[in-house]
Amino acid sequence: MTFGRLIEVHEREIFAYALRLTGNRADADDIFQETFLAAFRAWPPPRSGNERAWLYKIATNKAIDRARRAKRTAPLADLRLAAPERDGVTVADLAAAVRALPAGQRAAFVLRKVEGRSYAEIADVLECSAAAARSRVAEATKKVKEKMT
Phi and psi at residue 99, in whole multiples of 5°? Predict the structure, then answer.
């Protein structure tokens, strides 16, 4: 795969992922650009055939680095989740609960619950075991549910 083809295939999903992590189009655009710039600098990927996970890993690290530099959690005001308003819970409430998660748990939660990624993919992106990915998602889900009640 060429680098140009890599961009064509993955640009939309990487931008959408960055937007879900940050909740801000300007920040998402920055992370998107930083991701592909880092990918270009590191080209070729370490494992051929696993480019998607490689890009998600870069984007996740860029988002975490940005949050650390800003000393705040990234807002998720634009989070688009299918969540019916029941029991007085709104999408805004859900976004606030996700925003309150630590960066690593937030990334795992978004990858699993929003992006629908497998635990193996999450583990690859976050550079951890599948068991650790499952644990991060479970802990994040628990914290989000606690905030919802």
Answer: -60, -30
